[in-house]
Design goal:
By secondary structure, the chain is mainly beta. It is built from no helices and eleven strands. Strands 2, 4, 5, 6, 9, 10 and 11 form a seven-stranded mixed β-sheet that branches. It has a four-stranded antiparallel β-sheet with strand order 1-3-8-7, with no helix packed on it. Strand 4 and strand 5 form a beta hairpin. The N and C termini lie far apart (about 35 Å). The mean pLDDT is about 95.
């Protein structure tokens, strides 16, 4: 199983980025997916999650600005980030696990991508 996140970069505050997470070696449609981020000196935190059935969850800090989605035909999950703020600066990771599980629990994910850096300038 491989998860490959990309799409990070430098963006000004108020801007947008879309992060794809391409999956291989798994039955993607049966996996719940999450996006996490880790800022320097901070713990990795859940940003958004999407179940295999399409139900979504968002951290309060990103509600109304970020959207998680999935395209099962392309084996890809996405994180659309709008109205970016400097405090969104972090390395963003995608993660996945088969079936139903506690999407809010970092420890429940058993597959992780390598991370992509998002830097938001003020």
């Amino acid at each position: 199983v491989q998860l490959q996140a990309c799409g990070g970069g430098l963006v000004q505050a108020g801007g947008s980025l879309r992060l794809p997470c391409a999956a291989s070696g798994l039955t993607f449609g049966s996996y719940g997916m999450g996006w996490f981020r880790q800022a320097p000196g901070k713990e990795r935190e859940l940003v958004a999650a999407i179940s295999s059935g399409g139900s979504t969850y968002y951290a309060d800090s990103v509600k109304g600005r970020f959207t998680i989605s999935r395209d099962n035909a392309k084996n890809t999950a996405y994180l659309q980030m709008n109205s970016l703020k400097p405090e969104d600066t972090a390395v963003y990771y995608c993660a996945g696990r088969y079936g139903s599980f506690n999407y809010r629990s970092r420890g429940d994910y058993n597959y992780w991508g390598q991370g992509t850096l998002v830097t938001v300038s003020s």
